[in-house]
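Sequence, please.
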């Protein structure tokens, strides 16, 4: 398994180690900031996205709209919350470009 840590998870120019065998299209990324902690795992056309952040009204709806604008289909969503923070765990599928 290849693991990459990056602050810019939208960067598609992740270098591939020269000596590591290719096990398929799998990419991992993490981002920690004052606003949220984000972890992304991509395997082929499936994406596991975890976002931990402070709670705000309408936040999950805006997240779903944004993900769908990136041509990601929400297959499953798990929400775990406390008084001050929330953890969203998305299972997504990338749509193929035609």
């Amino acid at each position: 398994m290849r693991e990459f840590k990056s602050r810019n998870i939208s960067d598609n120019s992740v270098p591939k180690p020269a000596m590591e065998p290719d096990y398929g299209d799998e990419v991992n990324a993490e981002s920690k900031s004052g606003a949220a902690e984000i972890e992304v795992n991509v395997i082929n056309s499936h994406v596991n996205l975890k976002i931990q952040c402070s709670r705000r009204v309408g936040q999950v709806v805006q997240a779903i709209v944004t993900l769908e604008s990136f041509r990601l289909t929400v297959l499953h969503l798990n929400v775990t919350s406390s008084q001050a923070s929330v953890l969203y765990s998305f299972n997504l599928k990338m749509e193929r470009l035609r």
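Residues 79 and 88 are 5 Å apart (CA to CA).
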